[in-house]
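FW: tagging you since you asked about this chain on Friday. Here's the raw sequence from the shared folder, copied in full. Didn't touch anything.
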Amino acid sequence: MSRTTKAKKTKKSKKQRLGTGILIILLALVIIYGIFAAILIGPKTTLDVGEAAEETVTAPRAIEDTYSTEIAKQDARNAVGPSYSRDEQISEQVVADLAAALTAIDAVRVLGKEEYNRMRDSGEEIKYTVEFYEECLKELPEGFITGDVVNIIQIEDEEEYIRLKEEVTNIIRSEMDSGIVESALEARKTDLQSQLILSGFNNEVRKLGSTLIDIYLTTNMIFDVEGTEEAKEKAASLVEPIIYNEGDIIVKEGEEITAAQLEMLKVIGYVEDKNAGWIDYTAIGIIVLILCFLAVCYLTSFNKDIAFTNKTLSLTLLIIITDLLLLWLIRKIEIDVYFVLTAYVPLMLYILLGDKRLSIYMNALVSLMMGFMYIRVGEGILLPIVLAAVVSGTFSVYLMKNDSQRSSMFFSGIISGIIMGTVYVAFDLMNHATYKKMLLDFLWGTGSGVIVAVLALGTLPFFEAAYKVVTPMKLMELANPNQPLLKKLLLEAPGTYHHSIMVGNMAERAADAIGANGLLVRTAAYYHDVGKTKRPAFFVENHMDSRNPHDNINSKSSVDVITSHLSDGVDMLRRANIPPIVQEIVSQHHGDTAVMYFYSKDKEETNYPENIKIDNYRYKGERPTSKEAGILMLADSCEAAVRSMENATRDMVEDRIDAVVKGKFDDGQLDYCDLTLQEITTIKEAFLVALTGLFHERIEYPDSQKLIGQGKNEDSD
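HL: got it, structure written out here
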């Protein structure tokens, strides 16, 4: 198949995977939406105000009666009167205007006396003209009328007049200092005018005083809108919320339902809210989309291998959905809300996919989902369980040891539960809860961790089998020397077995150095040459004497025998149910390299070298497509090449490693395995450290063995 055809097939395959991935995400959205709707909405009945309750309904948790509380708050607001602020400028202006008016009245009284004296001295009839009154009126401020002028001129008792001025000035100044609101102005004027009568003033003086009060007493208290609202809100804030504690009766059987009770029944989800039904479904849809969008954004940004690989994508979503279903079941059978199993997600993701950052992020996301699912339990409970879920789930990942044994998994689950219980107790201490409640909450948290560990251990084999995922624990089992294929390799091809162990150590060291899966590549290295057990004598590391079977067959047969160990090995792995990922790495560890020894030998021995085609000498494998496969190819070739060296120094080993890696790189064998130049440099350094320690002594090979060994080793066997 040409590379162009391969590229077209790969492009088509990517499109198909993308389409399948979108369908997986949409299916997950529908399932998660259904879980949320089942918990938050659920089956409901219809009731109305005035209808008789069919059964006694109690509060499932501590819930605030917001309807009744709001009515009480509104009553408190209504009880607060308006607030006013005194305008000092108005007060000062009124006192000043009154003083000016009294001065003008004094002037009018002087004019009246002068006119009286003139008429008396001239012998005229004592009678004031209209023109005179008008002239006097001009002397007075605005507000006075002609009748007031007449009254002012007629006042004869100067002492009473002087007493009036003082009395009126004091009254108005006192009233302005006290403050007068508009609604009380007229009543105050009437009261003060009546007070003048009680003060014993004669009729003319009292009339003048009443006029002055009527004109100059005014409003100086301005309505304070902001102050009034603040006072109302302060009064409302002092109203204690009306709370139904868990178990309190909301409505009794046969009792007529009030508006407040109906609202409470809607809050707990007992009664269908016809007006808000579609709002609930829409709100749930929005939250689900946002949370899933966060998950997709994270995967496509930081975990593209998972996002664009349908198997791992569906595995991740299935674990999340499994946990959400567990949470739904817990709420359905009404187990205590502090019994939370969110740590199941990070624990399973870390075991199955080995990505710590992914596990922690998804733990936080599922904790938020759980918080939304439990939103009706009340804020006082919601915050502790969400925080405990985030903290315990994060610790469950960090507590997992590198060996990933099942005991480590169980230990991690239990400790995460203890941490969850500790968070609950911390909140209980802040709320001054009883020791009994603290103990119960701690036990619920610890119990959650125990159940998470049991569930993880119980469901792990299912996910391993269904998705053919190789967990660290599975890899540890496969790397055990008692595995049938490894025992077969040890007994039938001991040289190859020893070579595989050394390649495994080298590959693991290099993988760890660049952040690849060291345990996976070490396990694959142990099995990479099991195909040689079919014809062990044809491989130089298994030669027990100087005889070389290749001397008795032609080059084509030798090439077929050498290259067939790859397909034979993959077939043996498949029949032994070794995980596909190990099979894939083994099948790629030679790529499509050529057996250069026999290719060069045939070209040298033939008279027609142009007829010797290198493609006839190549392995039938694929080039490495993962970092682990690329590392195994390089480790295998470098170990074989250095093993064939005599009396090698460190510099010689380093030169041989450089030559082998350069050869693979130039041949394009590393084109598809995503190894960067920096990573390749790190890998070579790791190989150098390992090989200079392993081959500090050299054994000289017989010429015939050495000849075949060099050809084989150059072929990355």
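FW: Residues 475-714 form a domain with the Hypothetical protein af1432 fold (CATH 1.10.3210.10).
HL: agreed, and Residues 1-12, 697-717 have pLDDT under 50 and may be disordered.
FW: great, closing this out.
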